[in-house]
Amino acid sequence: MPPRSPASTKPAAGVPPPRNILSVVLGDTLFKTWYPSFYPEQLIGKTADRLYVCRWCFKYSKEVLPYLTHTRQCEMREDPPGEEIYKKGEYSVREIDGEVWKLFAQNLSLFAKLFLDNKSVFFDVMGFHYYLLMHDPTPDCPSLHPIGFFSKEKMSWDNNNLACILVFPPWQRQGLGKILMGISYELSRREGRIGGPEKPLSEMGRKGYLRFWEARVAREVLAVRSKSSLSVEELALKCVMLVDDVVAALKEMGLCEVRKNGDGLSISKARVREWAKQRSLDLTPPIDEAAFTEPWEIAEVEEE
Fold first, then answer.
1. Which one of 69, 106, 129, 237 is separated from 52 by 20 to 30 angstroms, measured CA to CA?
2. Is residue 25 a contact partner of residue 52, using CB atoms and an 8 Å limit?
3. Which own/partner pairs from 209-212 qualify as long-range (CB within 8 Å, at least 24 positions apart)?
4. Residue 41 has what pLDDT?
5. How far is CA 143 from each of CA 28, 54, 98, rounded to the nearest angstrom?
6. For position 225, what pLDDT does the model report?
7. Which listed residue (186, 198, 214, 220) is catalytic?
8. What average pLDDT does this structure show over 37-45?
9. What's the whole-model pTM score?
10. Tens digits of per-residue pLDDT, 235-255?
11. For this structure, is 300 an active site residue?
């Protein structure tokens, strides 16, 4: 069966550096790369028209026969790495420790770099957890397929809840990035931390996060019943977001208001409700808290 080649999202405008791999086959899906990656030259040469990547373990080959031989016997085909922490419908998320699954994490990072311009691949992956988004459209005949991921430092002095995020190009523009972002913030909430993504964000990343933050802010504001307005600090605690990220979202929404006494900013529920109504915004949460398979004890979130 020839690889299928669905349409994929292109990177932001600009001249990307020369690519050393022009296209990849992941499972039975063929798609173009965006940027160069650090695959070893002694294995793939200086350039390759096509790289074959195992969809279960991300091992790679520039030759189709070794690739097919490997995929028929890949141990991760039936036993994926890590632990499943979330499952809702056709989608699940697995937590993978970079120290335990070092080679997997390195191969995943090499693959991801083909679609990320502003992130470097470090082979010291042991300080990170990786959260792999899996798709299984046929529950009666399981066929898990990774379609994206985010990474997170085990110890972040800046309280970053996400270091790198990517939905693989053929699965973009389906709202799946919101699932990964939602997982990262729910993990922060359960850890009792207020955090956000590692900065600076790429242009595409910033646009995606602003949309996510806007919906999260609107949802939390409208869920409050006892007040007609909230301070930015109160909202940040409810959203488990950094104050700067809340302000960035409010500015994008055009909803920042200075309090009458001039002491800080406040957010009007009426204005948020009107903003959401004008945009016919779907405020359904991107994840279901009850769909987490690991019953973590939720810690109390402390103020910054």
1. 129
2. yes
3. 209/181, 209/245, 210/248, 210/249, 210/252, 212/177, 212/178, 212/181, 212/182, 212/286
4. 92
5. 12, 14, 24
6. 82
7. 198
8. 91
9. 0.89
10. 999 999 999 999 999 999 988
11. no
